[in-house]
Amino acid sequence: MSQGDGYCPGVRATITRRLRSLTARKTRVGVVSYDLQFFGAILDDLRAQSDLDVHLDEWETLHAHNGPATDRLIDWADVIVAEWCGPYAALASRRKRADQRLIVRVHRFELDQGLCAAVEIESVDRVVAVNDHYRQRLIEEVGWPAAKVVTIPNIVDRSRFDLPKTDAARFHVGVLGATSKRKRLDRAINIFQQIREADDRFTLHVKTAVPYDLKWVRDDADEMTYFADVWPALDALIDQGGVVRYPAGPDVPSWLQDIGFVLSVSDDESFHLAPAEGMASGAVPVVYDWPGAETVYDRRWIHATEAEAAADIVALGGSEQRWRDAAEEARLQAAAFAPGRVLPLWRDLIRSTGTSR
What we know:
357 residues; alpha/beta; Rossmann fold; six-stranded parallel sheet
């Protein structure tokens, strides 16, 4: 369009933009996953972006290849996102063309199971870890280039958990999910017993599936031995009236209305959503010092011993004002995991590794 075309500069610029929008196509994003529990909000947000065309290939399990459907998605996409570093991440790294981009998100499970070794890292453009400790493990233990590994935390939507607390919440200690030995239900019980010795107003609230209902637990002799000791101990405390158990389910926000403290006492976690969700609800997180905890949570909430954790709960819960002040501090810190902070990081990641023709 020349200067003599009869259009003023503003109109000419508008026409140029519209012509470009008609000729450019959306960036194709292919997401492959077997479990969207940590990626659902990210997927919804990517689908809402006008410049992205997002398709999902969801496997039944981490190892259940969807055959031609997965192959077609990988071939179609400009950007391939492998949520979980499973066999499909390895497959994508082998099939990826030079004009495509591949993003792989790694959780604790894949790293501990040695699944990362099957991925051809030369073909991967970005690796996402959910905390800096696991980013460092990927660099040091797996040998992946530091320049390719970034940290983006999990999402906790505070608006889902912004519900009023019950009057008794500050005396209620919560455990959310305890279906593996690694979650250390025994440690939670020990901490609770020390709390009760100091102040019998406290009760323990455990929301979890029954471990024996899970096939992978029944198939693991070590897990079965562990729960053969711990589960009866929990039942005994329930009979004594100090513990309440709730079934697993999606009603976590309403359950947290009655919880003043949330325990995170695992041997190992990559992020652990439970204390973060508790923080968003206005509960105080009580985090055992699992490796990398300080890269996710403020040192104030991290405890080196069971006795230290118990004493902190008793001290805070014993004073309504101290508990409210600590809970509000935790609630404000949960903003670090808010969608408004995390989702733009994913949009930028997709677009910076994208292809638009």
